[in-house]
Structure formats: structure tokens, C-alpha cells
Amino acid sequence: xxxxxxxxxxARFIAGRSRDVSxxxxxxxxxxxxxxxxxxEEAFSLSGWKALHELNPRAASEEAVNxxxxxxxxxxxxxxxSAEQKCxxxxxxxxxxxxxxxxxxxxxxxDDGIPITSASYYATMTLDQVRQVFRSDTEVPMPLLEERHQxxxxxxxxxxxxxxxxxxxxxxxxxNSAQKLLxxxxxxxxxxxxxxVFEKKKVAFYKRAQILVADTWSVLEGKGDGFFGDISSLTxxxxxxxxxxxxxxxxxxxxxxxxxxxxxxxxxKTGDREEVEIRGCSIWCCNLICKHLLEFYEKKxxxxxxxxxxxxxxxxxxxYARDHRxxxxxxxxxxxRCIYY
Length: 341
Ligand SMILES: Nc1nc2c(c(CN[C@H]3C=C[C@H](O)[C@@H]3O)cn2[C@@H]2O[C@H](COP(=O)(O)O)[C@@H](O)[C@H]2O)c(=O)[nH]1
Hints:
Bound molecules: the ligand Nc1nc2c(c(CN[C@H]3C=C[C@H](O)[C@@H]3O)cn2[C@@H]2O[C@H](COP(=O)(O)O)[C@@H](O)[C@H]2O)c(=O)[nH]1
GO molecular function, one term: hydrolase activity
InterPro entries: Q_salvage (IPR019438)
Shape: globular
Keywords: Hydrolase
Order of helices and strands: EHEHHHEEHHHHHHEEHHEHEHHE
EC number: 3.2.2.-
């Protein structure tokens, strides 16, 4: 079977054959226009990764890189079965949900002297220890704890056996190439192999692998081992929040039939046609938004290729989705229980 290995090529292929999801070209252009003035602000910059998010590491150290690897290895499936009841983690007087609950639990464990970011620890962690470290402060546990246990043992073992127990060793092997680091991660860590079959072709989204490269770039502040000359070759990270915000911003459209299924709370399976179309069209849509943004600046004689890329657009849209939960409550997000996003 033909393998469309790059997420961008996969997205192009899917968008060209999608039935229930479509990119609204005019809508995408309008989103780019609305972002034009924001693109030079902190919310749209590499420094925002630390400045705007108190749970992210402050340092640009090997320990911080291993924090990122642990978190992105577990960066999946936080949506709760019922919106009212969800997993919450209280940390330093604040309550965190979703992805941030994961980060809060990691920082809580480190404060309690548990070496949760050390591969030698999580390679042999027991399920009970996972339940304890990632415990919720409500009755609702974090989803997929058994899968998180399995993924931790597997990734920790690979990191010990192939990279001396540190993800920084893997980063150094990439020789400042984002695409090479992406390939190293997908080839060595099975849980990052986020792929599907669409119209008899193998397509790839690599959501956690791409966000791992992006977060490594961010935590190392784009310098030294964290400098990637080809960082702009990454796509956005096809999770369940970006599609939701793109529909909210009218850059992406769902068919009536798909909208009905989403509103009924249908839980899709990994690889279902609807899921693949939603993720592929989201990537393609954001590629278009980036293109328009760069063209708008070019018309003003400004080359913004170092300031505007899919990574920074993604971070901006993801934070926007977080901050506009209320406004977006009528736009359903697609539900899949998986370890890929
Ligand atoms: N596309 C994209 N998806 C992202 C992230 C993040 C957090 N990362 C950055 C955010 C701030 C820091 O700068 C981190 O670097 C989590 N997710 C996904 O969202 C979902 C969780 O959502 P909710 O249930 O609402 O917490 C889940 O699929 C999770 O995998 C991102 O940035 N982009």
C-alpha cells in the first residue's frame, strides 16, 4: 500500500477527497486577516510557551527536555464522558483540567520527590504508582490510565535502551532537523505512530510526535540543540480542539450528517472516515491560513517566515480554544478514545 508519510501530503490527499468535512477558503482567508495584527504579539511567539503557561518548565535544561518528553508521551485523550463530571488536579492553589491536569500532576509528583520525568523510574512504574501520580482531585479519574501505564513503560524502556535514558540524546541525533527528529521519534517510539488508512492509502498525522518536536523547540527557546532550521515544515497538531475552533471560526465546515452524529455524542474509532477527514482537513485548513498570513505580510514588504509557522498558529488557536470554551459550547468536538491525541 502506498504510504503518504508526511502529514502535509496526507492532509492534501484527504482534503481533496473529503465528503463530510470541507475547508472554507474564504473563511480561512478571513481568519488569517483577523490574525494579522496578532501575529507580531507574544501570544503568537515562541516566548509565549513559557510566558503564558505557568506549568511549563522555565529552564532550557536537559531536565526540562525530559519533562517535555514525558508530558507529550501522555498528551492524549483528556475529554471526559460527561462534561459536568471531569478529572481535576489541584496544584499550588489552582484547579486544572484536561491537558493542564496532566502537567499539574507531573509537577505535583516532582514536588513530592517522585522522579516521574526519569526514564529509569517510569520504565518500571507499576499501574498502582501511575494511578497515584495521576490521581484526580474529583471522583472522575484521568481517562485511559491503563494505556498511560503501558505507554510509560514502553517509552521509558526505549529511552533507556536506545538513548541513554535522556530524550536530549535523541534531540542531538536529529542534528537540528525537525523532520529528522520527527522520524527518530516515530521509528523508535511505537505509541507515537499516529497513522490511518484513507481510500486505500496510508496517511499519517503524527500529532504527538510533531508536538514533541515543537515543545522541544519551545523549551530550548529555539537555540542550541533546540534550533531547527526546518521548524516551519511541521504542520499543526491534529487533536480534538483545533478542529472545533476552526469550525467556530468558520474556516472548516461539517456536513449536516456529521454535525448530527457529533451532536448526538457519537464516539468514533481511530481510523473512522469521519475522524480522518476532520483531522486531515484541519491540517490543510491551517496550512492555508499560514499561507495567507505570510502573503499579507509579504504584500507589506515583510518576510515573516521566522515569526509565522504552523506551530505558532497551532499554539495560538489552541490557547484561543481554551479561553473561548463558553463561546464554543455549541460546536461539538469529535470524540475518539485513543493514545494518539
Ligand atoms: N493542537 C494542539 N493540541 C494540544 C496542545 C496541547 C497543549 N500543548 C501546548 C499548550 C500550551 C503549551 O504551549 C503546550 O505546548 C494539548 N493538546 C491536545 O489538546 C487536547 C486536550 O485539550 P483539553 O481537553 O482542552 O485540555 C488533547 O488532544 C491534547 O493532546 C497544543 O498546543 N496544540
